[in-house]
Amino acid sequence: MEEEDQRKVTDLVIELVRRLFSQQNPTPNPPHFSQSLRYAFRILSSRLTPSVSPDADAVAESIKRCLATQGNSSDALTFSDLYTKFASKNGPGSVNNKWAVLYLLKIISEDRKNAVNGMDSSVFLPNLGLNDDETGNDSRVLNGKENGDKAWKNGVLLVSKDPENLREISFREFGNLVKEENEVTEEVLIRDVLYACQGIDGKYVKFDSNLDGYALSDLVKVPRATRTIVRKLCELGWLFRKVNGYISGSMDSFPAEDVGTVGQAFCAALQDELSEYYKLLAVLEAQSMNPIPLVSENVSSGNYLSLRRLSVWFAEPMVKMRLMAVLVDKCKALRGGAMAGAIHLHAQHGDPLVHDFMRRLLRRVCSPLFEMVRSWVLEGELDDIFAEFFIVGQPVKAESLWREGYRLHAGMLPLFISQSIAQRILRTGKSINFLRVCCDDRGWADAATEAVAAAGVTTRRGGLGYGETDALESLVMEAAKRIDKHLLDVIYKRYKFKEHCLAIKRYLLLGQGDFVQYLMDIVGPELSEPANTISSFKLAGLLESAIRSSNAQYDDPDILDRLRVKMMPHGTGDRGWDVFSLEYDARVPLDTVFTESVLTRYLRIFNFLWKLRRVEHALIGAWKTMKPNCITSHVYTKLQRAVKMQLLSTLRRCQVLWDEMNHFVTNLQYYIMFEVLEVSWSNFSNEMEVAKDLDDLLAAHEKYLHSIVEKSLLGERSQTLYKSLFVLFDLILQFRSHADRLYEGIHELQARTVESSSNARVKNKPRQTKDKSSEPGSWISEGRKALTQRASEFLQNMGQDLDALATEYKSLLEGFLALLPVQQHIDLKFLLFRLDFTEFYTRQHATL
Question: Where does this polypeptide localize (predicted)?
Fold first, then answer.
């Protein structure tokens, strides 16, 4: 039954072909009949597998669109009517697979329009030519080229099976074409690329110094795509060459200072990464020897590793090698902490691969740096022979160890260590060295052990590393807290820092009143002499006498032993008052606080206070001379009226001027001693109690000293006021000399009056003692009239001098008070309030 059906189908096909030919050529045996018949059988027997979905309406619409675009609108309408009737027929005798019939007719219609080499297009399949000797290979290839675009026409793609091995033929032709374009096989190029990635020149891929990279020679004939991919792959070799060259150069120059331990650790970390890279290259070389699975057995077998597969393998190593090359360029001129900081900047990356790689690298690089931190914080040892640490030490004297012995090197401070932590690290190591060198103390070792136990970290080498910032901060905080506390305990208890500060306040700042008063009384006559005639040994003896005669004798002998007399450099005409001063010998470790510059500022304050006390002492001496007594009252009763009025006026002027000067000096001294010294000392005492480390103590003392200097008119901004004040002091001392001269003249007047009343007794009884009044030209040697005249002239001259002195004093005081409101320090404005409490000067001088 099947054979009959097959025979019927064959007869129907023959009849169909004959009818198709009879429409074009009515002859019984038209030309190409056999070819067309065979072509029809091949179409019917082939397995067509279109890539479009089996949709009859879509194919019909495609046919109509094709007819319309060709200008056959009437044919398109006719086809539409026929398709409507064809699609509407269902049931027995109808065609079930309508889409296949339409698709077959469409393909045949398209093939009839094609012609290749003058032959009828009906003898060919839509996409592959017949395997006949008449057409040949060239015509097949040409037909394939011409019909390649036609296969996609109207959105329909025809894909067929390959019953006559046409695909194999195409593979063979493609292989021949590739061989013609390539002088070098891919296996050789892969081998050269692998060589280049190890920094070795291959046969065809070599390093070009002009291009600064590996490249294929222009003489080698390869496709452009192959040349491009080889150049991209060889970038890895260029990067490897840069990284490996840096490692080799650094290792060869070690132990030079330019490399250092951090640089060596960096090179070791890079070398480890290159070791992993070498392992990958070894695996790839092994892969290159495996055969490639091919479609056909007739094609020669190559290696498994192709250039494209190699690019996939090189993706991750390329990222790492680029990072290493960037780091090498960045760190070429860096070392130590600066190098670690530069690498840390590249670790801030969003790619997990890059982030993990950089962290792994940084743990190796920062290992020497963290070991330096551990050694410095716990042992005070600066193990930095290559100057890589962010703490720099220099040889200094013991008194300068804390301030100048160690400092932060900002250029070596990596960014992952904050400035505050770095300052704590610096201070902790300084504290250990200060205790060891200056205090000769070993208690810091126990404090460091307690800090390690409290922080919960290990003291072994490598216990700290990159990424363990919390552990580092914990260790530094605990070590700093305990070691700083131990240092302050040693300073306060063993070396009695507070007692020494109080001694300086009492003796250099003249806070011990009875001592200062007695010292001024006994050294006053000596200091009135020219400075070049004064013996410092004699002054030292007078200082000892003042100590033994006051409550200072009950102080600690060590403190009293440090108090000494100092004579400042002096010139011609200087008096002892101008060069005398006291100094305090601050020995190690107290000289860390009381440095030479600090003691110089204390000396300035002492000179100011000493001058103020001298002025006060001079006014007290003038008052002792001026107070009413029997001498002045006796003179008052014995003088003529005119001279008597002159004397009273002069004495009144002198008393009023003394009162004004005493008011000014008393209030100024109260301001200095209580509102300046006592307030500053109270604040300093409070800050000493809350100080947590030696830096806090130094800062508190500096603040204390600065407060005294600024409030005492000794600051840079108060120089005009300071000079004006000293001019006032000199004027008051001049007043003392005027007052002494006045009352000396009064004494002479009293003596002359006594002598003139007992002239006979004087003549009969020669004087046993000789004084100024018996000298030729003195008042006593004159008569009574001459005595009155000389007294009048003397009192008149003294009155004029006192008037001039009062005028000058009033002018200077006015200028001094006018400068006080414009001072920036608030306490100096309070001084004006105290001096002008009753608003006497305000009412007297409108400018105030």
Answer: Cytoplasm, Cytoskeleton
Reduced to 3 states (helix: H, G, I; strand: E, B; else coil), residue 214 is: strand
Q: DSSP for 31-77?
A: TTHHHHHHHHHHHHHS-B--SS---HHHHHHHHHHHHHHTT-HHHHH
Tell me the two tokens of residue 828. 């100096």
Average pLDDT, the chain: 79
Output the CA–CA distances (angstroms, integers) from residue 254 to 48, 264, 386, in the order listed: 75, 8, 11
Environment class of residue 443 by beta-carbon count within 10 Å: exposed (0-12), middle (13-18) or buried (19+)? middle
CB-based contact 487:432 (threshold 8 Å): no
Q: Report residue 98 as tokens.
A: 């309508």
332 Cβ contact list (under 8 Å, min separation 6): 246
Secondary structure (DSSP) of 398-441: GGGHHHHSEEE-GGG--TTS-HHHHHHHHHHHHHHHHHHHTS--
Token pair of 319 as six digits: 């990222």
**pLDDT confidence tier of residue 783, bands split at 50, 70 and 90:** low
Sign (positive/negative) of CA torsion 58, 61, 63, 66?
negative
| Cα–Cα distance measured from residue 489 to residue 683, given in angstroms and rounded to the nearest whole number | 20
Distance of CA 415 to the CA centre of its chain: 7
Cis amide bond preceding 589, omega within 30 = yes
Q: Which helix (H) or strand (E) holds 207?
A: strand 205-208
Work out the burial of residue 42: count CB atoms within 10 Å of its CB; fewer than 13 is exposed, 13-18 middle, 19 or more buried.
Answer: middle
Rg (CA), the chain: 58
Q: What whole-number distance in Å separates Cα of residue 207 and Cα of residue 187?
A: 19
Q: pLDDT digit string (tens) for 606-631? A: 999 999 999 999 898 888 877 765 45
The encoded tokens of residue 678 equal 């006592």
Lowest mean pLDDT among 145-149, 236-240, 388-392, 764-768: 145-149
Eight-class DSSP state of 765? S
Contacts of 624 (CB under 8 A, 6+ apart): none
Question: pLDDT for 400-443, tens place per residue?
Answer: 899 899 999 988 999 889 999 999 999 999 999 999 999 988 88
CA separation for the pair 129, 143 (Å, rounded): 7
Name the one residue in this structure whose structure tokens are 């491009």. Answer: 228
Q: Where are the alpha helices (DSSP H) in 73-223?
A: 73-88, 98-112, 136-148, 166-181, 186-196
- Cβ atoms within 10 Å, residue 46: 12
Are 546 and 577 within 8 A, CB to CB? no
User: Which residue type does 95 have?
Assistant: V
Kindly report whether the global pTM for this prediction surpasses the value 0.85: no
Quickly count: other Cβ atoms within 10 Å of residue 526's Cβ. Answer: 16
pLDDT at 208 over 60: yes
The 10 Å Cβ neighbour count of residue 430 is 25
Residue 451 to residue 428: CA distance in whole angstroms: 12
Q: How far is CA 758 from CA 18, 762, 764, in A?
A: 190, 6, 10
Who contacts 387 (Cβ-Cβ below 8 Å, separation ≥6)? 257, 260, 335, 336
What is the distance between the alpha carbons of residues 359 and 366, in angstroms, rounded to a whole number?
Answer: 10
Positive/negative CA dihedral, 349, 350, 353, 356 = positive
> Could you tell me what percent of the chain has a pLDDT over 90?
27
263, 359 in Cβ contact below 8 A? no
CA distance 247 to 321: 13
Q: Which residues of 188-209 are buried (b: 16+ CB within 10 A; e: fewer)?
A: bbbbbbbbbbbbeebebbbbee
Given phi > 0 = left and psi -120 to 50 = alpha, else beta, which region is 777? left
DSSP track, 247-263: HHHHHHHTTSTTTHHHH
CA-based nearest residue to 766, from 755, 751, 778, 753: 755
Measured CA to CA, the distance from residue 128 to residue 131 in angstroms comes to 9
